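Minutes, methods subgroup
Present: GH (chair), OT, SY

1. OT presented the first of two proteins processed in the latest run. Sequence and structure tokens recorded below as shown on screen.
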Amino acid sequence: MTILYVLIPLGLVLVGFGLWAFFWATGDGQFDDLDSPGWSVLEDDTKPANPDRKDEPPQP
């Protein structure tokens, strides 16, 4: 039963830290643009990934 004197304050500290981290991230702009990273995966690359491939025939 005495462990509750440790666990309850520890739990409250962890909840307080989680709330602080959430509000800090919200105020810092971490959640401003949630759609662009998902769409950027679907876009084509502008240059080839490995232009120095040896198995391709030489260009004239």
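2. SY then presented the second protein from the same run.
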Amino acid sequence: MQEAQRSKGRAETMLLRAMIRYCRGTVHFAVSGPYPERFLNLCAQGGLGLWNVRQQPGGLSACCALSHRRQLEYYARKSGLTLTVTKCAGMPPTVRRYRRRTGLWIGLGLLAVGLLVMGQFVWQVEVTGLESLSTAEITDALTEYGVHPGAWARGIDSKTVERKMQVRFAGIAWISVNVEGCRATAVIEEAVIPPAPVEDGVPTNLVAAYTGFITRIEVFNGNPVVRPGDSVQAGDLLISGIMDNKMGESRTAHARGQVYALTRERVEIEIPYRQVKYTLRGIARRRYLTLFGVTIPLQAKGAPDGPYRLERSEKAPGGLLSLLPVRVTEERYLLLNEESVTIPLEEAQRRAEKALALREKEWAGVTIQSRNLTGTETPAGYMLTAEYLLERQIGQETPVQTEEREAALPEE
């Protein structure tokens, strides 16, 4: 990790050094004659920075800042060497070469003004930290509150936007809207929804939601009226919210607990022999260019006719171009042929078993004790019938009726 950071630091230093040298201009030269070491000593004493120093037959070659060219000539004469300038590069020679191109300088001036004006607006909006919330909903809300591509950066009141977003979305625990240059970033921390509070002050009974045979009871509060092995019907009382105290007086309470029972379940899955089959017949692409928040279609055609499946992808330029407000969106239409086919009995059986397995996965907290499968062929398709014996939690809370509460009150 430290080695990677050091490498990154060296790369940034080299890039900064190259930019400075380009702005100052660079002169590539060669000196020839006896004892070039004296020339190097004079340059060091005069504070001239040389780089890319290489020895060559009869002398040496090096590079120096363009502003030190006169000193190089002076030190070469003083040391008795011949100085030959091989190349001048960088910004000053380029400016001197194109100084008579009036249109070029006007264009550069307009470009500078345009970049200065564009820097006052937001061209990229990013949302981070989302898990369960929808990115589209958050982006639409930010757009409604003024945070969108093309918005004036100084006109965005981050505190007001943050407050409105927290009021609008209960799932946002914390949000920070930061505007840096042409980029606006919304960092969101989603709220952890606490479990629903248990209202112990509301008198309730625990009744059966299914018909079955009781296997086990876990009473947390209340008076149980059934035992393991009892048979109950849907709606029967399992744990009463009316309890007696040590004085023999009755009172109402919030009955809580878990009552497990063996119940029966019947599931029917029907798979018709006639099915619709889709085959890929081609791919159509539509591209859109988003520039400064405006979407421009690159093709005149719209959505194709017939059945299709749409896939959308967005690409942004890399490197320094990623800072520009430019995005290319590609829509891929997978064109499909629709045809009616007849599947064999074996395929219908396989699909029915797969659908039944998906149905069983929906039974959270249910234990399958036994399963009896029956397959039936019909003129239209295949019918798979499953008879289950399940162990499940059948208790559900219902409020204590008014007459029950009155009967439980002690007589004065």
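Chair's summary of item 2: The chain has four domains: 2-95, 121-190, 202-273+343-412, 276-339.
Next meeting: continue with the remaining queue.
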